[in-house]
Amino acid sequence: MTAGWGRVERPDAEIWYYDTAEDKPIVVLLHGLAGYAREWGATIEALREEWCVISVEQRGHGSSTRRPADVSRRAYVDDVRAVLDDLGVDQVPVVGQSMGAHTAMLLAAWAPDRVDRLVMVEGGLGGDSPTMTRTIADWLASWPAPFADREEFLAFFGTGRMVAETWADGLEERADGLWPQWDAATLARAVGHVHEREFLEEWSRVSAPTLLVRGEHGSVPDRQVESMCALRPDIEVATVAGTGHDVHLEAPEAWLRLLTRFLTHAR
């Protein structure tokens, strides 16, 4: 088989996922808010020697249903379960970044039989203030799409070149320019569900071996990490120097060393 795209029909959405299609153990990747399945490109290539890599394009993003009515935490978790069902697998390692990490954590809490290892990249418990929800919503709504070309987007995005290039790769080319593959209002509703409370009880129910990867200048509060470690002292926490929220894009070599060692050691 060759690498390509799979699709799952949910009651209210289509969920697409990228599949390297090797006859190997499966690992699942979940992107963050406003991300896309192939943003994990370097991770996919590094893992596929030992793994069949499944990267889910989550509801509201990319080729999956752009404006689903249900953007609850349960909907996102059930989408991943549906992908695992479609692949015919039971328990797999699940890796998520940011909002994808939160989804992975809830999957491990609500369906512990589906997750045998959990990796959370810049992911916490949720429960940010309504101010943060509004800040993210305003930022998404501020994108001056369409962008005339790639250079105009890179100038707008204004962060490290490697991260900006990856975000640019996720834009959709139309006749009038480049567009994000998401709807700002839909994603604002989705992240609001992450922020509605701290999912501390769910975290305490996770039993899978867990690696929490932080950026030195990331956005997960120290207070939350301390709470997470107090409830589950068995977790491994690693901080990647010089990075912010997009650790997997900003320091791919350091990230991949952490990931591959954890996945190999936890087998």
UniProtKB/TrEMBL annotation:
Is Cytoplasm tagged as a keyword?
no
Keywords tagged on the record: Hydrolase
Stretches assigned to coiled coil: none
Q: Which GO molecular function, any one, fits this protein according to its record?
A: hydrolase activity
Residue span, AB hydrolase-1 domain:
25-252
InterPro entries referenced in this protein's UniProt entry, alphabetically? AB_hydrolase_1, AB_hydrolase_fold, AB_hydrolase_sf
Organism superkingdom: Bacteria
Q: Which PANTHER family match?
A: HYDROLASE, PUTATIVE (AFU_ORTHOLOGUE AFUA_2G14860)-RELATED, MONOACYLGLYCEROL LIPASE
Q: What is this protein called?
A: Alpha/beta hydrolase
